[in-house]
Specification:
The structure holds two protein chains of two kinds. Chain A is mainly alpha-helical. Chain A is 74% helix and 1% strand. In chain B, helix 2 (38-56) crosses helix 8 (184-206). Mean pLDDT of chain B is 82; it is low at 288-293. Classes of the chains: A mainly alpha, B mainly alpha.
Chain lengths: 327, 296
């Protein structure tokens, strides 16, 4: 895993990220920046379970949806600030993650994936069914009343910095996990579950911990999404597509790497079909065909993702250059 | 009488589910690969039937025969290009390679044919056969009969032919099978192709009965996972009985509780089975882990 020498590049990256929203005042580009931070945060959260612990959840949209709905409903019904609603949603997601996790952590490989898909589907069906509470299939509109307490802002740049805050918080947690005993345990579980168990790693407890942390942060991003778009609908917020999108970004960027999910988000988001509704279904379908193709090619030929493969290529190049220099 | 009707509807629906699931369970049983693109394969079959009917007025049941070689080719290509490279690789590769194929197929359909709901307008789509006071949908009955026939044929193929026996040998012990000069790669190719043909056939048979649109694969794909896990992954008979059970659960919960919630019920059944009896009703214990089971 990473050593202390990574502090420098990581701090530099944070500075660069903080400068990015200042580079443009164009709303279109600013929207892309906000989304890169937002999806980067969600992908980083997914990476805790999928990348470090090696449990491939395709049900993370459930936590995203819970976060988006809890804070929005509390705000609409009681005028509760989404900042507090966000924590309520996070707690609810963590609880749901505990239940999902308890039911499914014993399952391995694709069976865990199937169980997470099924549980997210149940939530989606319930969210559409309880129209009175959730607005049903047509969704929930959050009235725009800008203000710090209402977690709504006039300027997209403010959203970009708030989104960056969420992203950095998630990245900081992953940074801490990487350096802690827990991080090593999770990687041990990913690499060889039975061996890890034999060596005394409390496998089930650690998987649960990873899912709960991951769910909490995914849920926060869900709230951010709701506050940014001011509209939540079950067919999107709980969808399998969304869960696949989180996984896709991490896999393309690099499973189990600190910067990979953000890198994946930065590569994927600018072409994200959901923000290009004006292109029509056919064009957005074309983008998704391309993503599917990239996903297949990356898992087949660049298994470690772009972050690691680039680092390896860079190292090979440095070695080669040294060899050439020394004759 | 209403109970008889519900049971009949449930069993017919279950037969459809079983037909969809046979290919999935066969592929898993032999290759140990969960094909997450299974629902999208079905969607491709439905569109094939739709276009053959729409463009050349080829009756649905005839297009099943015409399309089988095309599905065989499709399965061959998917195996050669993707599945083969995932064999023996980690979960990430196996899961996301097939997830990626699903994303590609679903959205390629969206690009080519838009997201519109399409239906095949033909007389037998709504044909209903009345027996006593019970109504039986003819297309669903046909799908049901084909499901039973396909299961029976696969059973005979696996038990009576040399190729079938080779497939079962691979399921029991791939290494020993290899020592007996069985070409693993060829067995996997054969199995994947047969499984693809089964699901393509299912798609064609379902085409007259369901709206056809690119995302329909998601719901049917999920149903087939539920059926297959319930019946025991890799078990043919399990897929048939699992399909019937899920059909009954769906019809009864839809009738007595709420139509909109019926899917939630079988997902709950699914999670309960995964938790309480992960090997399914007819699967072999440990099959959900890494072990090897039996097909029939």
């Amino acid at each position: 895993m990473m050593a202390m020498r990574d502090w420098g590049p990581r701090a530099a990256l944070v500075v660069v990220l903080a400068l990015v929203p200042l580079t443009t005042s164009n709303n279109y580009y600013m929207d892309i920046i906000v989304q890169v931070f937002m999806w980067g945060g969600a992908a980083t959260a997914w990476n805790i379970v999928g990348g470090y612990a090696g449990q491939f959840s395709l049900g993370h949209a459930a936590f995203f949806g819970i976060g988006a709905y809890t804070s929005s409903l509390l705000f609409i019904a009681f005028g509760l600030s989404p900042w507090i609603g966000m924590l309520a949603g996070g707690a609810l997601s963590a609880l749901f993650a505990l239940i999902i996790g308890y039911l499914s952590v014993r399952l391995r490989g694709p069976f865990f994936t199937l169980a997470t898909i099924a549980l997210a589907e149940v939530l989606q069906i319930l969210a559409i069914y309880w129209r009175g509470l959730t607005g049903g299939g047509s969704g929930l509109l959050v009235p725009f009343t800008p203000g710090v307490a209402a977690f709504m802002f006039e300027s997209k740049r403010t959203y970009a910095y708030v989104g960056l805050g969420f992203l950095l918080a998630t990245l900081a947690v992953v940074h801490l996990i990487e350096r802690s005993r827990v991080g090593y345990y999770l990687v041990a579980i990913r690499e060889e579950e039975d061996a890890a168990r034999a060596l005394g790693v409390r496998v089930l407890r650690l998987k649960l911990l990873a899912i709960v942390i991951s769910a909490f942060f995914t849920s926060l991003i869900g709230t951010f999404y709701a506050q940014y778009t001011l509209w939540v609908e079950p067919p999107y917020a709980f969808s399998l597509e969304l869960s696949i999108q989180f996984a896709l970004m991490v896999i393309i960027g690099g499973l189990g790497t600190w910067v990979g999910p953000l890198l994946g988000a930065a590569l994927i988001t600018p072409l994200n079909p959901f923000q290009r509704a004006w292109l029509g279904a056919a064009a957005s379908g074309l983008y998704l065909v391309f993503y599917g193709l990239v996903l297949v090619l990356v898992v087949l030929f660049m298994r470690q993702g772009i972050a690691v493969e680039t680092r390896l290529a860079f190292r090979r190049w440095v070695t080669l250059r040294r060899r050439l220099a020394s004759g | 009488m209403i109970y008889v009707q519900l049971v009949v509807s449930g069993l017919l629906l279950g037969g459809v589910y079983a037909l969809i699931s046979i290919g999935l369970t066969l592929i898993f049983g032999v290759l140990r690969v969960v094909n997450f693109a299974h629902g999208e394969f079905l969607m491709v079959g439905m569109f094939a039937a739709y276009w053959l009917f729409q463009l050349w007025q080829i009756p649905v049941y005839l297009s099943a025969l015409v399309m089988l070689p095309a599905f065989a080719l499709f399965g061959y290509l998917v195996y050669r290009l993707v599945i083969r490279r995932t064999m023996g690789q980690g979960d990430a590769v196996q899961i996301f390679a097939t997830v990626g194929i699903g994303v590609i197929l679903q959205n390629a359909a969206l690009v080519l044919w838009t997201g519109d709901f399409r239906t095949i307008r033909s007389a037998y789509a709504d044909a209903i056969w009345r027996v006593g006071g019970v109504q039986v949908s003819v297309p669903l009955l046909v799908a049901f009969i084909v499901a039973v026939a396909v299961t029976g044929l696969l059973f005979l193929f696996l038990n009576r032919t040399m190729e079938g026996k080779a497939i079962r040998a691979v399921v029991q012990d791939p290494i020993a099978a290899m020592a007996m000069a069985i070409n693993l790669d060829r067995i996997y190719l054969w199995t994947f192709t047969i499984g693809t043909c089964c699901v393509g056939l299912a798609g064609i048979l379902l085409a007259p009965n369901y709206p056809i649109f690119p995302a329909i694969g998601i719901s049917f794909g999920l149903v087939s996972f539920v059926v297959v896990v319930l019946g025991g992954l890799g078990s043919m008979v399990g897929a048939l009985l699992g399909g019937l059970i899920i059909g009954l659960v769906e019809v009864f919960s839809g009738f007595f509780i709420a139509t909109d919630l019926k899917q939630a019920f079988y997902f709950l059944v699914f999670v309960l089975v995964l938790v309480l009896r992960p090997q399914g009703l007819f699967g072999q214990r440990g099959a959900e882990m890494v072990g090897f089971g039996r097909l029939v």
